[in-house]
Amino acid sequence: MTLPPEIGTQAARSEVLPPFLPVRMLNEFAYCPRLGYLEWVQGEFADNDDTVEGRYHHRNVDRVRQRARRQDDGEGVPKIHERSVWLGSESLGLSAKIDLLEGEGRRVTPVDYKRGKRPHVPRGAYEPELVQLCAQALLLRDHGYECDEGILFFAGSRERLRVVFDDEIVARTVQLAVEMRAVAGAGPIPPPLVDSPKCPRCSLVGICLPDEVRYLTLGEGAPAPPRPLVPARDDALPLHVQHPGARIRKDGEVLQIVDDDKVIGEARLAETSQVVLFGGVHLTTPVVQELCQRGIPVCYLSSGGWFYGITHGMSHKNVELRRRQYAVGGDPARCLALARRFVQAKIANCRTLLRRNHPSPSEDLLSNLKGDIRRAGQADRLDALLGVEGTAAHRYFSAFAEMLHPDEGETATFDLESRNRRPPRDPVNALLSLAYAMLTREWTVVLFSVGFDPFFGFYHQPRYGRPALALDLMEEYRPLIADSLVLTAVNNGELRSEHFARALGAVSLTPAGRRKFIEAYERRMSQEITHPVFGYRISYRRILEVQARLLARHLSDEIPEFPSFTTR
Length: 568
Prior knowledge:
The chain is of the alpha/beta class. Helices cover 42% and strands 18% of the residues.
């Protein structure tokens, strides 16, 4: 069969695409065009049980390439049995790693390993697997080999399926390769599948958000609310280390916190989402390299909790998202539209917190805050919006002290007159400042992981060293996470006067107090609530990631409006 020139020249028509289309990505595109686009163009990837199991079954062929076993049959014809063979072709615009190559002389057979059992379907396998194997055969033919058939080895049932490369499967493989390059080069991400049974098993479902995107796109015309496909919580948690002079080293798959050669704590790498260092804590170079390789960020904070910076691996590959972010950031109208939503949601959540926790909030206060929400939606400039937010914040904090109900004898400790900072001059403000710093760090980590530039915002304008976008997105979560956390820690008696240190007019938490507050913060982030838009149960930590990804969908014009997060 003659191959059309499109398969080899598509790359030349799209300068942003790499020259070779990986055959594995062709498999993903055949399974779901949106999945292939996310993985190849936007560089997204996430593990689930299926991907981990797949790597386990590929562990032999994924090792360092072994010496080829070539034998002579006595007549001068070499026999081939070689693992992990890499091939690429400029004429085809394809590249592949063949798990196993068998053959004699110039006639060869590619063998592709699959983790599951052989499916009982007409051709013995699904189209993505057939296309992937056929693409390997096209590469072998391009390199001068004869290849008329291939083998799919299903590890789950220990079966080898013989696949003949007829004109139909070759034509379909070429067609999909051309389509994938065309879709990738055109720009818009393919739409999500509609109520597909493929989505629940997909490792990228929490990144793709198929049901959520369709629900927000269709609005009231959506046939049903999203299925709860996004995991409610993340099993990996942050590792906080605040012991002065401690050192973190790696022992196999475990991080060890060491002080004077004595192990004082451990955490499994697989169960660690980020490493948070307070003050003078040290990391060994192997730990930094391992964390960067695994995409686990390291956050640096002062002993008092001031967020200094972050270390992470290579930046996210999704350059197109950052281009869209900068383009929208240069559009005053779109910046103002997003800023209005951030501020309106923040004021609404402040009002809700007062109604829930204040013993008798005045009707004037609630009415004024409601008016502030309306005025924020009508602001025609960012500086006018800042004025509305400042007025609302003054109203809110004027009543904040009445939501505090400390134990008897601790009332004077948690007496709050006004909001103050840099430095905080009373325990309540010290708690609020630390909570906001922790939330800023949380959002910065999330934005890096999604592919944003955390330092380029829409409401908070860029300023050297300030994570403006993190500050934008945390606005509506200040009352829900940070302020609520302070109320809970004080009202439940978790923090007392002995947990605070006073010096030169400033107040800060002692190491013991900070440990208690961090524990309360992690409980809050792991708490599951009902999502106000989608209706399923989800933790606050997972909500931050979902909201960040929805902002990415909005900036790429996939959903018309960014959904605010407000509780009733």
